[in-house]
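Before relying on records like the one below, remember that each one covers exactly one chain. Contacts with other chains, cofactors or solvent are not represented anywhere in the record.
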Amino acid sequence: MSTQSIFRDGLLAGQSAFITGGTSGINLGIACRFAEAGAKVTILGRNPEKAARAADEVRAFGPHVLAVTADVRDYAALEGTIRTSMDAHGPIDILINGAAGNFPAPAMGISSNGFKAVVDIDLIGTFNACRAAFDYLRKPGARVLSISATQGSVPSMMQAHVCAAKAGIEMLTKVLALEWGAAGVRVNAIAPGGVEDTEGMRRLAPTPEILAKHTESIPLRRFATRAEIAEVALFLASPAAAYIHGTVLAVDGGHAQAGFGTAAVLG
């Protein structure tokens, strides 16, 4: 995960991380990196078999791994998994809000239920995890990190539901930073652009032609790797970011600067 890492070994030794959506994609990469850095990691997903497989993958990087299952839209079930993590790994030092849903569609092609599902998973799920975890956070010293996307600040065609949900996550991040800072809880977000080898990227760029157009719209002319996003998450969870609070950090190769919302990146 971190052959190019600048961080010292054991950076998160003894700390507990709870990661929603931690069974795949970006969040699984973060789970592996945090385990490698010494953290006790709890990954949450909806599918028990998928969660078990992901936990085995994370254990290749560190021994203290717990897989739990719940839907982030179900507050009571989510709170129960957080208590289970607390019993196994102690107070939560790092909460990663990564559960998300996405599908490309024009606004007129999104049903009310489809729009609501994405907002419920992304935004309501993020609030639920933050609200349910607060009493179990190690205060002061805890860190909350939500995974947004560049769609949260730049409008993107075919993504009305995601843009709305991610914009909500980013404003929630800023409000919680105001309210929770006095308790010593740092709250930030990462807004990745396209990340290779993820389900989201396969959905948004399903053909080589669309993938090529998307790549050309990125100033750095490539997508991020999961390992690069994990390194940014590790930075924000580290003492090096001790005074970063209420920030949404874009990690997109300059994509948002290019005004991708009006580009024909989806064909």
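Residues 261-267 have pLDDT under 50 and may be disordered.
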